[in-house]
Amino acid sequence: MVNKKLKILVMPNCMELGEKIDKELKRLNKTTNSYKLDFIPDRFSNGEGKVRITDSLSNTDLYIISDVGNYDITYNYHGRSHHMSPDEHFEDIKRAISATSGHTSKLNVIMPLLYQSRQDKRKGNESLDCAIALQELENLGVNDIITFDAHNPSVANAIPRLQFENFYPTHTILNELTEREEIRDMLVISPDMGAMERARYYAEMLGCDVGVFYKRRDLSKVVNGKNPIVEHMYMGANPEGKDVIIVDDMIATGGSILEVAENLRQRGVDKIYLIATFSLFTEGTDKFIDAYKNNVFDKIYSTNLSYVPEDIKKEPWYHEVDMSKYMALIINTMNKKEDIEVLYNGKKKIINKINKKKELEEKQIKLDL
């Protein structure tokens, strides 16, 4: 069977990641031909946008890749420099879909950071933005939606007839963590009850115990759209003397995860590593710089699935995990209609890597004796 022609449409908000994915696709398929689709994104002086595709779409399996969390993209709006919001990035995705005019054989949208993923459930008279956005994509003719570490994967219930692939960067992050760090007696911590399933997954990959913090909130107040946290209550194994990994899907303001790290430091833990799929740093990095200086944590491991400023990447406490190889493998596997189940779990590889590292350490100890 002849595979459909593979093309990726890389939106301006993720050009660096898109270039890496293109490079990996060329390596996987042993070709020098680029998989990037030629198109022109444009914007009128009043802020209205448009997308024009200048490449052929016949018999094309098209993957539109967009980072809706990139706040560094600007355009001239009534004589002022305007930073694009997630809403505007999502509108550009819809423009790109519209520009295909139904000429693709298959249309896929990759949003590593799922648009409106934090508004994935409703309480009372609230909007349900993530569900509405997914339904919009379905109505526009999208065949597959691919994302990473969705805040609430159950939001896929809004589009039961559409393929919704939610991948996790767990094994890629742990590969780099175990390769770069000397982690011995490990404990995985969930900063809240909502992240417990993710923490358990990390703990299973590493073969260690897990703990969790319960966030007691003041339900009578709302600050920045959320009930403020009054207290962090810890439940789990004694963390004293252990190397601790605190995992979450995203770091926004960072206040909560740093409070958890400080609490654990007071409990006598050894090393503290913060792991997040997305590091948004919505209030800047000053508190992280101060926390690092005060030995609250040792390092942050996060991915390049969403925009992080270059100055943050240069910080000694931040390590970026490149996901381009994994993303290219996902795209290539789906294009060739191969089994994607093997891409969901790298547990065996992680365990073998940790065991080999332990064996080398034990051999070295014997040699030293």
Summary keywords:
single chain, 369 residues, alpha/beta, 7-stranded mixed beta sheet
Question: If you had to describe this structure to a student in words, what would you say it looks like?
Answer:
This protein is α/β, with parallel strands linked by helices. Helices cover 33% and strands 25% of the residues. The chain contains 10 helices and 16 strands. It has helices at 15-28, 86-100, 129-139, 170-180, 196-206, 255-266, 286-293, 310-313, 324-335, 347-368; strands at residues 5-10, 39-43, 49-53, 60-65, 74-77, 80-83, 106-110, 144-148, 163-167, 186-190, 209-217, 229-235, 243-251, 272-279, 299-303, 318-321. The strands form 4 sheets. It has a 7-stranded mixed sheet with strand order 12-11-10-13-14-15-16, with helices on both faces. Strand 7 (106-110), helix 3 (129-139) and strand 8 form a beta-alpha-beta unit. Helix 1 packs across helix 9 and helix 4 runs parallel beside helix 10. It starts with a strand and ends with a helix. The model has no long low-confidence stretch (mean pLDDT 89).
Outline type: globular
Q: What is the string of helix and strand elements? A: EHEEEEEHEHEEHEHEEEHEHEHEHH
Overall strand count: 16
Helical region count? 10
Query: Using only CA atoms, what is the Rg?
Result: 22 Å
Instruction: State the end-to-end CA separation.
Output: 61 Å
Mean pLDDT: 89
Structural class: alpha/beta
List low-pLDDT spans: none
Share of residues in helices = 25-40%
Task: Report the sheet-strand fraction.
Answer: 15-25%
User: How are the strands of the biggest sheet laid out side by side?
Assistant: 12-11-10-13-14-15-16
Main beta-sheet strand count, sense and barrel state: 7 strands, mixed
